[in-house]
Amino acid sequence: MGSNTPSETQNPDHDHETISIITMDENRLQSIQQKINTPPKILSKTAGRATCSIFKVPKSFTDVHGDLYQPKIISIGPFHHNRPQFQMMEEHKYQYLGQLIASTSVSLPQLLTAVAPLVGKVRECYSEEIDYDDQEFLEMLVVDGCFVIELFRKVARWEAMNESDDPIASMSWIFPALLRDLHRLENQIPFFVLQCLYDLTCGEFVDSKVSLATLSLEFFNFIIQRPTDIILQYKDVQPKHLLDLLRSSFITQELDPKDLSNQNKAPSGHVVPSVSKLRQAGIHLRPGKSESFLAIKFKRGVIEMPRITMDDFLSSLLANCVAYEQCHKGHSSYFTTYATFIDCLINTAKDVEYLCDKNIIENYFGTEAEIATFINNLGKEVAFDVHQCYLANLFDDVYAYHKNNWHVYLATLKYTYFNTPWSFISVVAACVLLVLTILQTLYTVVPYYKK
Description:
By secondary structure, the chain is mainly alpha-helical. It has three domains: 59-248, no CATH class; 257-407, no CATH class; 420-450. The protein contains 22 helices and five strands. The strands form two sheets. A three-stranded mixed sheet has the order 1-3-2. It has a two-stranded parallel sheet with strand order 4-5. The longest helix has 30 residues, at 421-450. The chain is globular and about 115 Å long.
């Protein structure tokens, strides 16, 4: 009777909490304070400024399709500088520098002197702190910049380039790799550095008034292949770098800024269904006539999408432009919006096959399944505001049309009874049979009533 029950037993360890006090030694405190006082290097303060335009691609993007962001044969700028795999082209950079100097009246000291005042401004353009000292950094800017300019000039005189012993022209695998490497986000130097060097060395291009922007777009036109009048529209632009120039050249006047916000109503934030679901609702897709694949339109149940050629270059360009828009402060989101739109359209290889059949996608990329996988990955880890994009109203209009029951009924009728010639013939035969049956009944019944 006097024994304690288990609930009444007291554990002396629970009578009070044991507090252990950990004291930091002086060295540890100094280490913490030093880290507080040390500015970030991997993602420096410059990355949050509008002046910063060249970024290391976020790991969340590289985990999905990292090969699209990494240069393969040449390093431009500090992020991949001095890596062993680029040694072959590093040697050719100095050869091109010598050829550029030999073809102009400009000396190497003059080139270095012209770019030297820009070094501090250039450092502000990179998202990471540049560890190279000013002299090494200056040399890299001049060598890389002069290589790009001399390459563009040689390509503009392609026949003369082919007649020389230049392996970049004679070996067919090098030139396509350069086309891809020179537009990668991590592989850039600021355009104002290129412009400074071009103004000093442009030589014969002064007489023909070829701007650096035009010369650059003509270089990439070997693979994009757009009309000359389109290229000349951007002759006076001053982009951040070559990737930004390419990106800007697709943002045409057709992409009406008024589409960003409707004056009569605010976009409700809906996205579009997949191709298969759109077809079930009677929405058709057909190729548009614009030179820019971004210029998508919707009217009276038809989505017009300009043709896009899916290949290694375009897939890399799309991925790098999306990464650039995601990193650059206050940048417009045209490529991010386009990537989100086609990601909504395409769920399966069948959706890609339909777009290929409609001449909207020209496939040099691989199988339909590979294109579907790439496009679905393109939208991963991307921040996107459907209310503030150039297709906001199109998203809403397509969604509203798709949800209209009348359109769904008509489309269902069409696909059920008129999808093939045989089903159409069957429906016609059934209608004729029904009419004949009614007529036979009338001829049988009417004489009876007359009697």
